[in-house]
Design a protein that fits this description.
By secondary structure, the protein is of the alpha+beta class. The chain has 16 helices and 23 strands. Strand 8 and strand 9 form a beta hairpin.
Length: about 500
């Protein structure tokens, strides 16, 4: 073969190799470095301190680093802080920051940035969603030096470190926040391993690797969150390879997907519960007997076995057993006759109309569960007007002080894994997510005491008393504790969730 011909052949082979590598979007082995995750809805905002939904938090775990974080075993470990100390009186925590970490805009991560982030969230005028998460216990943030920051606390706060490890503790680039203002949730800049590349509302959010990340380099070139509201459609995408990971997995598809050797199903413990908020400000449920009655009217065992296919357990308290401070106070048994008796004692006439609201597709099997509860309540004599909502409108409507619903299906993930955050926002009179609008002074005292008590044994006793009182007051129909179920392709490693339902994708590897 002539030399020129040989060179042409070699060039052609190299061209084919390059095309093959390019089409796979990845490394020399031809493994795609693009990860596609199909989720039930899209993020609401990419501002950690204004985020209250799980999908936004999943995204923010890619974009933002925190002072401390959790490992696979839910143990607190260093992140932007390399070490920390707590004062003997428990009222001051000092963090020493690692040097050399930078935000995705090239500005340095330092004590000033940490102070800026937390000063912003504890400023009530900013009206950020996670104000109460931090403002309740942080008194003042101090810049001790360029790489040392300390927090003066209002009182010794047991779950302080786990609260700093919460996704809502992600540290912002001050430069970006000042430039973007109220739009920062659409154009975030953190110090995490991935940065925002593209957000097509209602369709997808694309994250790309941050080449200047201070820690272990990102394993993926891109990670795409696809919005797929229909449960069965997500399962099909996993089976056809259109998605690498799906969350959640609809319960009716779990057994089928488990038979596919190219798919893995993770069923893990969760700190999320599902409950029906009872509007305690409107008749007939301003009467505690009527609230207790409808707890007896609902068949929780059948919901767990038939609708959830066992991917949940009947709730035995207002927080789940994965949450620190939990104790079982027992479920209301299914007893329709007892329900009718209590309704009669409360003076509730047969045929009374109730307005039952639910989001549609926000929480696993939410619509199906709400429809089943509608039937249970009709069986004890109510007329039930049923309404499905888009989640954003549902949240706005249920938060309205003049809301006209009687019952609203809600879910709460105790994202700090501590009873304080499992109860304070949703059952204290002033709680930002107190959809039942319960106002009970005795309960307020207990929740406040639990937050401000330092001794762990004393705290557990306080929360045990609080859980008993909550059961008796029945501000909810207590339904179930979720298990978190995710599906992913078997060629992936390091796909896992924390107990608080954060889907952690930083370390995912494709084989």
């Amino acid at each position: 073969m002539k030399k020129t011909s040989l060179l042409l052949v070699l060039a052609f082979v190299l061209l084919l190799s390059a095309c093959s590598s390019g089409s796979s979007g990845g490394d020399s082995a031809g493994v795609s470095k693009d990860l596609v995750v199909a989720l039930g809805s899209e993020p609401v905002t990419l501002d950690p301190q204004d985020t209250s939904d799980g999908i936004s938090n999943n995204a923010n775990e890619l974009l933002f680093d925190k002072l401390v974080t959790l490992d696979k075993n839910n143990t607190i470990v260093p992140q932007l802080a390399k070490e920390w100390t707590t004062s003997p009186d428990g009222k001051k925590i000092t963090f020493k920051l690692r040097e050399g970490a930078k935000f995705q805009d090239g500005t340095p991560v330092n004590a000033e940035a940490v102070k800026f982030t937390f000063d912003r969230v504890i400023n009530k005028d900013n009206k950020l969603n996670r104000y109460s998460l931090y403002a309740e216990f942080i008194d003042k943030v101090n810049v001790d030096s360029e790489y040392q920051v300390s927090f003066d606390l209002k009182f010794p706060f047991g779950p302080a470190l786990i609260t700093f490890a919460h996704t809502n503790g992600g540290i912002h680039s001050p430069k970006n926040v000042k430039e973007k203002g109220k739009e920062v949730g659409k154009s975030p800049v953190g110090a995490g391993p991935y940065k925002l590349k593209e957000w097509v509302p209602g369709n997808k959010v694309v994250f790309e690797a941050n080449p200047d990340y201070w820690g272990d380099k990102p394993k993926m070139k891109t990670i795409t969150f696809k919005t797929v509201a229909e449960n069965s459609a997500r399962s099909i995408m996993l089976e056809t390879g259109e998605a690498d990971i799906i969350v959640p997995v609809v319960t009716s598809d779990v057994d089928r997907l488990k038979t596919n050797d190219k798919i893995k199903i993770n069923v893990e413990p969760s700190s999320r519960n599902l409950y029906m908020s009872i509007n305690t400000t409107r008749a007939p449920f301003d009467n505690v007997k009527a609230r207790q009655a409808i707890n007896y009217a609902v068949d929780k065992e059948t919901i767990v076995k038939k609708i959830m296919s066992g991917q949940a357990k009947v709730a035995e308290a207002a927080i789940g057993d994965m949450v620190w401070g939990y104790s079982s106070v027992g479920a209301y048994p299914y007893d329709p006759e007892k329900a009718k008796q209590l309704l009669a004692e409360a003076g509730v006439a047969p045929g009374t109309t109730l307005k039952l609201w639910t989001p549609d597709g926000r929480y696993l099997m939410d619509r199906q569960i709400a429809e089943y509860i509608q039937g249970n309540l009709q069986a004890v004599g109510f007329k039930v007007e049923y309404r499905k909502w888009e989640f954003g409108a549902f949240q706005e409507a249920t938060r309205d002080p003049k809301a006209e619903f009687n019952l609203a299906l809600n879910s709460w993930g105790t994202s700090t894994n501590d009873a304080d955050w499992g109860l304070r926002p949703i059952l204290m009179t002033k709680g930002a997510s107190n959809y039942s609008k319960l106002s009970n002074p005795d309960l307020d005292v207990l929740i406040d005491k639990g937050m401000k008590t330092a001794n762990p044994d004393d705290r557990k006793k306080v929360y045990g008393d609080a859980l008993k009182l909550i059961k008796d007051q029945a501000p909810w129909i207590f339904l179930l504790d979720y298990k978190q179920t995710s599906g992913y392709k078997s060629n992936l490693d390091n796909v896992y969730n924390w107990n608080n339902e954060r889907l952690i994708l930083r370390d995912v590897v494709k084989k």
